[in-house]
Amino acid sequence: MTLHENQALIEISYGRMALKAHSIERNLAMILALSIGQNPEEYNKLLKRYQKLTLGKQVNLAKEKNIFDEELLFALNDVVKTRNELIHDIGGLVADSAFSDRNSKEIIEYLAIFTAFLTEVSNILSLELEQKFGKDVLDELRKIAEEVVLKWHA
Q1: Largest distance between two CA atoms of the chain
Q2: pLDDT tens digit string along 16-72?
Q3: Which of 42, 54, 58, 94 lies 20 to 30 Å (CA to CA) from residue 18?
Q4: How far apart are CA 146 and CA 150, in angstroms?
Q5: How many domains does the chain fold into?
Q6: What long-range pairs does 113-120 form, CB within 8 A, spacing at least 24?
Q7: Is pTM, for the whole model, over 0.90?
């Protein structure tokens, strides 16, 4: 594989990782808002506020509110630490195509492993959402979110 092809794979892997991390942030914001909000208006207000928080602040708030068990909080803290390293420390290297052939294979493998971990955590959070609030509520919330996105694209 050429260095150019490796760089493309790094960028694809990095993008997948970033999307999974975003999925976790989105699910956490929803869980926080639904756990605290008492009505749709309050939920929407809280959701907007929690979506602006960093992932680390979302996790800390979930810990303060005692929303998750220790095992999930440990996993979320690991997500925050590793995601921050990848976004803030390695992101520039990815953008600058600064990996050698050998290093590019290592970073692709590492990103794949971390993305699998993120997928697992995201799935757990999705189950938490569904168990706590029901599929019907989540479907309604997703419709609201889709309407916002469609307005943004118009």
Answers
A1: 55
A2: 999 999 999 999 999 999 888 777 788 888 988 999 999 999 999 999 999 999 999
A3: 42
A4: 6
A5: 1
A6: 114/17, 114/82, 114/86, 115/13, 115/16, 115/17, 115/20, 117/75, 117/78, 117/79, 118/17, 118/20, 118/21, 118/23, 118/24, 118/79, 118/83, 119/20
A7: no
Token pair of 82 as six digits:
């590793």
Judge whether residue 154 has pLDDT over 60. no
Residue 131: give the domain boundaries: 3-153
Residues 6+ apart with CB under 8 A from 21: 55, 79, 83, 87, 118
Tokens of 151: 């307005």
**CA-only gyration radius of the chain, Å:** 18
- Extract long-range pairs of 76-82: CB within 8 Å, 24+ residues apart: 76/24, 76/28, 76/121, 78/117, 79/21, 79/24, 79/55, 79/117, 79/118, 79/121, 80/55, 80/56, 82/114
